[in-house]
Amino acid sequence: MVSNRKGTTKRVVVSAAWLKAGLALGTVAAIIASACVVDYLGLLSQSIENKRLRVENTQLKQQFSVVEGKLNALESGLERVKGFVTKLKLITNIDSEDRTLKLAIGPLPKVGQSVEAEIHPQVQGRLPAALPRGGAEGGEEYDDVFYQKPPTDELQGELAVEGQRDYASLAIRIDQAVHDTNLREQGVLELWEALSERQSLLSATPNIKPARGWFTSKFGYRISPFTSRPVMHNGLDIAASPGAPIFAPADGVVSFAGYDPGYGKLVSIDHGYGVVTRYGHTSQILVEVGQKIKRRDVIAAVGTTGRSTGPHLHYEVRVNNVPVDPQNYVLDE
Asked: What is d(CA 23, CA 279) in angstroms, rounded to the nearest whole number?
């Protein structure tokens, strides 16, 4: 080793063995350094990819929530359409073998309670001797193939969704909704064709709420406010301000307009086809017996006459003299 400055010259002697060893160590060090650089670059690239996947994951979750919300709205709409079509079929006697009994059976009394009201002969025998304790037995079973949650690799940025909110179940729900939509559309078209041939029946069928107000007591068994015992409530109570107008829900002829000890001032309309509606506890009667009525005509005013605890309308629907649930005849709710 010779320096470019003045001084002594140094001499270093390296044996061939040390030289080979040094070259081997240098080669190993170079390989290790190269591997570290490649691994670092890979981790850096993966980190950038994970950040991108996390952003996409967030966007997908938001899009999933939007699609799920729209699907829930679609399913709710289908349920409303289903209920509407069911009501139409019930009140117009389409595809119904025993419409009167289906509409007449309301909520049943609880276990051990006595009943004051007399049950109609056509309905008697359909009621069970006692209600079962607790809810329905069993539950809905799911197919493990479709609803089993697959494992996710969160380190790789895969989308992990809690519970059953995954794309597999969402796809199944969408397919089911599309299928139900097609069936519902076909059913509505068939119903429209059938109803088009029954215009006179539709005009005489109650289908609107007879008074503006809120429901306070529904059809079925309830605790009597006078005796505190369960009794059969044959109608639907609609609370409204005194003097509020009462509308005819369908075309018909007034068959009764007078005073009844229990109903107070009572109006009864015969709509034909065995359907009769009754309006109790009114404060004023605005129609006469034999008068022809059109749908939405004002027939009386809300009051609290007769056996009543406050101003309201007691609305009844009878089919072949059998009390049925008036809720099935309210389509504008």
From this structure: 109
Handedness of CA 267, 272, 274, 275 (dihedral sign): negative
Q: Helix, strand, coil: what percent of the chain each, to 5?
A: 40, 20, 40
Give residues with Cβ within 8 angstroms of 33, minimum separation 6. none
Q: Is the dihedral of CA 83, 85, 90, 92 positive or negative?
A: positive
The per-residue b/e assignment along 292-308, b for 16 or more CB within 10 angstroms, e otherwise, is ebebebebbbbbebbeb
| Burial class of 42 by CB neighbour count within 10 A (0 to 12, 13 to 18, 19+) | exposed
Q: What is the mean pLDDT of residues 194-214?
A: 80
What one-letter code names the amino acid at 115?
V
- 312, 271 Cβ separation under 8 angstroms: no
Query: What is the model's pLDDT at position 333?
Result: 59
Cα separation of 236 and 169, whole Å?
41
Please write the tens of the pLDDT for every residue from 152-200.
Answer: 444 444 444 444 456 777 778 787 877 777 777 777 777 777 666 667 7
User: Residue 77: is its pLDDT beyond 70?
Assistant: yes
For 325, half-sphere exposure in the C-beta direction (CA atoms, 13 angstrom radius) is 19
Instruction: Give the mean pLDDT of 27-35.
Output: 92
What is 214-329's CATH topology?
Glucose Permease (Domain IIA) (2.70.70)
- Work out the average pLDDT over 127-142: 38
Residue 289's identity, in one-letter code, is: V
8-state DSSP, 251: -
